[in-house]
């Protein structure tokens, strides 16, 4: 799907910004498209002169994103594009965790199966062993 291709989504977002869309609306629109396509997580970073004379960075995140370590390098797909506007240049970065990504901290707890039922003969043997132990204890108490 094109919505899960980070570079393509970054290019789309940049072209939409060049056409005059408000940056926050465009970013949320891109984020929703990616998440509806089934991604585990998505982050959109827009940086530059968004409104006014001062540049700033806006991050919009949904779902689960790894930022550090080997999983971040292997699993997260990254795309970058530049939008040229009248005020200046805006950098657009899109990070996507695809739906088939196997995260290292995602594991399933398997419940133990109940132990097999003890037969009546085994119960009797255990009881007899228990009686012997108690009998020895009571004899040693009498000796002391």
UniProtKB/TrEMBL annotation:
Domain of life: Archaea
Chain residue ranges for the region called Disordered: 120-144
Keyword Hydrolase: no
Gene Ontology terms for molecular function: RNA binding; structural constituent of ribosome
Record's keyword annotation contains Ribonucleoprotein: yes
Listed Pfam families: Ribosomal_S3_C
GO CC terms: cytosolic small ribosomal subunit
InterPro entries, A to Z: Ribosomal_S3_C_sf, Ribosomal_uS3, Ribosomal_uS3_C, Ribosomal_uS3_euk/arc
Keyword entries, A-Z: Ribonucleoprotein, Ribosomal protein, RNA-binding
Residues annotated as domain Small ribosomal subunit protein uS3 C-terminal: 13-96
One of the GO BP terms on file: translation
Family to which this protein belongs: Belongs to the universal ribosomal protein uS3 family.
Name of the protein: 30S ribosomal protein S3
